[in-house]
């Protein structure tokens, strides 16, 4: 058994991005007054840029026009004299770079998408970010015990827009430290009955109730298979434990004193642990 020192990460940096909403802006408008026949459906599509944010569904109004949001008005006349509610069912969908707005006329008469002044009433607004948003920040967490023993071993989490708060970034860093701050035991030369189903990355359970009294899970990180002219096949695995037993405490060990007392300080400067 050995320790996977190379796998230690005791200092974790997690970047995160804080998004601040800005003022919404009108994105799409219609140029002609559209009509929807009785019990019929009208679908209108718009092309988005993949970097744009979703637009809210249009708010239906009859008299007072909502401000700074998607909106639509229906009327039984082309002039828009009267506004109606409840006769039109709408669905707004975003599929990649396409926005699809569907209106279903549930009434027995035609209706028109028109304002009180006879102009097209459908207006689609989209949310915008504030200036200099998102703010890109980073948080660092570290394990003092591991840093003292092994030195600073830094892991930089790749930046992603899905991490948006300090709390989320901190929880990710804490979890990574919990599994990487201490070296994972490596079990070498574990000979098993040959099994062609085992591949690198498999999770296996190791049980030894005779020698080391071991019962743990481990990843398969190495496979050696060999055979000879007698038909004998051997398969030997190298395993890395999924958890660490913690830092060694050197309990019950009493190192011999240095033969040369003056050698202690140079050894300490070189990082050698001396009594």
Automatic annotation (TrEMBL):
Could you tell me which residues belong to the region Disordered?
Answer: 244-265
Give the source's domain of life in one word: Bacteria
Task: Tell me what this protein is called.
Answer: Minor tail protein
What is the species listed in this Swiss-Prot or TrEMBL entry?
Lentzea cavernae
Organismal lineage: Bacteria, Bacillati, Actinomycetota, Actinomycetes, Pseudonocardiales
